Amino acid sequence: MSDSQGIKGTEVRVRFAPSPTGYLHLGNARTALFNWLFARHHGGTFVLRIEDTDVERSSKESEEAILEDLRWLGLDWDEGPDVGGPHGPYRQSERRDIYQKYAQELLGKGGAYRCFCSEEELEAERRVALAAGRMPKYEGRCRLRSPEEVEELLASGRPYTIRFRVDPAQIVVEDLVRGRVSFESAFIGDFIIMRSDGEVSYNFAAVVDDAWMRITHVIRGEDHLPNTPRQLLLYKALGAEPPKFAHLSMILGPDHSPLSKRHGDVSVSYYRETGYLPEALANYLALLGWSSEKGMEIMPMEEIARQFNLKRVSKSAAIFDNAKLDWMSGNYIRKANLSRLTEMALPYLRRAGLIGEDYDSQWLEQVVAAVRAHISCFSQISREAEVFFSFDACKALANGEVRRVLSEPEALKVLEALKGELLKMERLTAEDYPKLVKALKAATGLQGRPLFHPIRAALTGKASGPELALLLPILGREECLRRLNSIIGQLER
Ligand code: GLU
Asked: In the predicted model, is pLDDT for residue 4 greater than 50?
């Protein structure tokens, strides 16, 4: 444990605090992952907190979807709305009494005051500031109200917010990623901590919760850096020790603008539905802003957790590169357990109409083994595996490349030789394949492309695909003969 990461022998407690107002996108997933890695590295606690105070935009479905995506990515949490824990409840909507209590405490100490300004008054104030070229901020009219005035307004039933009093100060954030960042409180202005409808503001809820939940490190997106000075002032006013902060740089799309819907679907569920392996996506996300000291890239989660260190989290923005994710995912697919992959492939093959309820699972495993080198996610599997399930000689010959290969002078000779050899054999297993090739070489006097291309073209109707050594035995003797006969029939017409 190193001191420069702010760990002084105390237990590490971090949190991921999503707002359930939509799907989990890659940026938030990366934030969750970095928190999880940090917690696991230090043997600490990872807390999941749901920030659902925006009643209109929050939904139960979104909360469930976020939890499901996190679990799918392989993340687990030690405390949270579903698993409970000693610092709950873990949904902000269930913590309203706690926020009220602390807001009242601040009111009592004079650290906050009631603001009776109406929306119209505030809007007018903003317009005046903008017209004068000043940054709009609350000018503090209600700061100066006498207790009698306040009593009167309260008695009249006028709605009010509770504002936090910001006094002149320089606020320094010692960020574990960005280094020292200074803010001038003069630019902040007294901000609202409780709205007139009694709902808590984000900054106040986050501080009360982080303090209450004994969070030691707040690791979150850089977009929250401007909130940090406000939060530090709140900690001070509440007499609570602030956590250490680590703000993660943005994730940019390939065009170097912040990763967003503009770059396609950036939700974790999209990658799940497209059939990426969760461990591949998690591994890839870990490299968005963090790098292994040893320059390793493909690493199981436990190894990343073992190596994870905020010192190696980069200040500069990370670029999301789909091609690299595909490369990584392909790597994972090539190494993954075959029966797991076959299980994963099923829905995709079903959707493409390639298999129904009944199928031979052993045979299917062989198909998956033959095509896995050619896919980076399962949505690509039907395209690659199709050759094993259906064949149409007319369609095959409609492919220009296939027609060209099969009209080579010696192509028909190769196909006839293959047919002849297959007729002599009883079956065609993987062990028989080398013998078959030897016999074909002898019969045709050909080898390499002139021998193999016509075979592939005739049996699959495609110019490329799985290795023939895998393909032919999976198709089997009968199916190879059936395809050969129909293509030879077409060629001889
Ligand atoms: N609910 C906030 C968000 O989703 C969390 C901010 C924080 O981590 O403090 O952006």
From this structure: no
**Is ligand 1 within 6 A of the CB of residue 220?**
yes
**Tens digits of per-residue pLDDT, 226-284?**
999 999 999 999 999 999 999 999 999 999 999 988 888 899 999 999 999 999 999 99
| Residue 191 near residue 233 (C-beta atoms within 8 A) | no
What tokens appear for 320 in the block? Answer: 């999301």
**Pocket flag, ligand 1, residue 224 (CB < 6 Å):** yes
Q: Is residue 482 part of a domain?
A: yes
Domain count, the chain: 1
User: Phi, psi at residue 429, to the nearest 5°?
Assistant: -105, 175
Domain assignment of residue 222, yes or no = no
Residue 7's pLDDT is 55
Instruction: Give the chain's length.
Output: 493
Q: Which of the residues are catalytic?
A: 261
Q: Write the CATH number for 427.
A: 1.10.10.350
Across the beta sheet with 170-175, what order do the strands follow?
Answer: 45-48, 13-16, 217-221, 244-248, 170-175, 179-184
Please check whether residue 38 lies inside any domain of the structure. no
Residue whose CA lies nearest to ligand 1 atom number 6 = 17
Domain of 450 in residue numbering reads as: 393-491
Question: Is pLDDT of 367 > 90?
Answer: yes
* Percent with pLDDT over 90 in the chain: 94
Q: How far is the CA of 123 from the centre of ligand 1 (A)?
A: 27
User: Quick check: is 276 in a domain?
Assistant: no
